[in-house]
Amino acid sequence: MTTAQTPALTIPGPPAQLGGYLNLIKMVRDPIGEMGRLFSTFGPLVNMAHGAKVRFLSSYPRTEGVVFVRGPELLRQIATKSDIYHRYHLLGPLAPGNHATRRQEPLRYFAAGLFDMNEGEHRRARRLMLPAFHRKRVENYRDRMIALTQQLAAGWAPGATVDLHHAMTELTMQIVTSCLFGVDPHSSGEQIGRTIQHAMDVGFNPATLMVRYDWPGTSYSRFLDIVGQIEDAMRRIIYEKRLGNSAGDDVLSMLMQARDEEDGSMLSEHDLLGHAELLFIAGHETSSNALSFTLLLLSQHPDICADLVDELTGVLGADPPTVEQLRELPLLDRVIKESMRVLPPVPWNSRIAVAEDELAGQKILPATEILMSIYHTHHLAEIYPDPERFDPTRWEQHDYGIFEYNPFSGGPRMCIGASFATMEIKLVLATLLQRFRFELVEGATVNRFVGPTMSLRPGLPMRVMPQDRQFQRGAGNLRGNLREMVHFPASTSGRRH
Ligand code: HEM
Prior knowledge:
It contains 18 helices and twelve strands. By secondary structure, it is α+β, with helices and mostly antiparallel strands.
């Protein structure tokens, strides 16, 4: 974090307190709440700490300040001007600089991939990767997604209490391990999946972010150990695929064979490492958050859940859906859209300006860090009347524009895994809801947890019942600050939050 005295950005915002550090602390403690308060006071383009040149998430040590934006027009301008607004390494302040040590070298690839590329380099990489994510290709993963969901469900005893958030994270981790890497998720896949997840948890721990010294015993040193192990494991997977001539139908095998149609080049081993590790990170926690939020919302909206189970039974009977049948389930589609509107798994996208620009009549200076809030755009009453209401019927009357409804972003960096994620979420939800009713345990406290994604803490304790259609049970049981984001039925225990 860096500070300087001269204010440069003229964008309105609260005065910097303690050189901006106090403003930063408020953001770190409750980013959704704090951003919401700033938008309400200062409008859709707001400077986090007027006059302070602090950084929040960026990998650039020096910034002109941190600016938040909401609303479809500002999101569109920033997302589409990709020559001015660059993305940076997902690790932000942990990204290695020009003088990385040998132990820091693996950080160049860890969680890098497309996120650490811009302009020509990014366009070339996307050209090479897009065929592996084409809808028709992705549909080949349907059987694996269903089988892994059924295996998970087979382990649930009727009436047992399960942390569904943990279960959904395990499931989506197994799905990406199998579909992206072609590795058996129950053997070595489980290992690599958990290790990558562990690295993210250690990396985004304040102890790692604040004391970035590779000294024995520091959290940062442990982080470097884990990232080194991940690189070794990924290199082994790539090596074994090369020995088998990359014949698998998984995404990594396809990337290893991909050839650029313009210049005939292929992805280097370093590129492959970066893409594979980022795909794993970007591809499992997001989907698991969407699944957890949707199951929670359904458990608290009994009428909607009843209609959805009717639809599933009517179209599918007792069988898991085929890809074609997914198109015959309009309510399932609306429920998922509305869930990702009201609780988007990725609440914001981040950029750094690399050239001067103007937004809403305000000058943006090079090195301004920008956060584009998907969450606050999705909660604008002028687009979504009664925005905190979970109401899938709003999708019957309206088709929203891509920057009004933006869970997968838009423009040249739109989520490459959107078709994969949408199919996966539909298949998993349909398969589970046909067999089970999920009842939130009484007094469960569920809070938002916002990092690069939005998830929930401490977990999602649900009783797993056979699908007996007693949808009212467990509705009203929720406590915690998700109640600030969605209108949930009143708590049956009579206590709020
Ligand atoms: C519900 C699930 C998901 C959500 C909400 C989501 C959301 C997003 C968003 C908002 C972005 C744009 C970031 C930006 O503009 O800076 C993004 C990018 C990306 N996503 Fe997803 N994602 C999901 C699932 C997946 C899956 C399943 C995969 C891979 C299998 C994936 C891979 C990626 C990659 C590689 C990028 C970077 C694209 C680029 O920079 O060109 N995502 N995702």
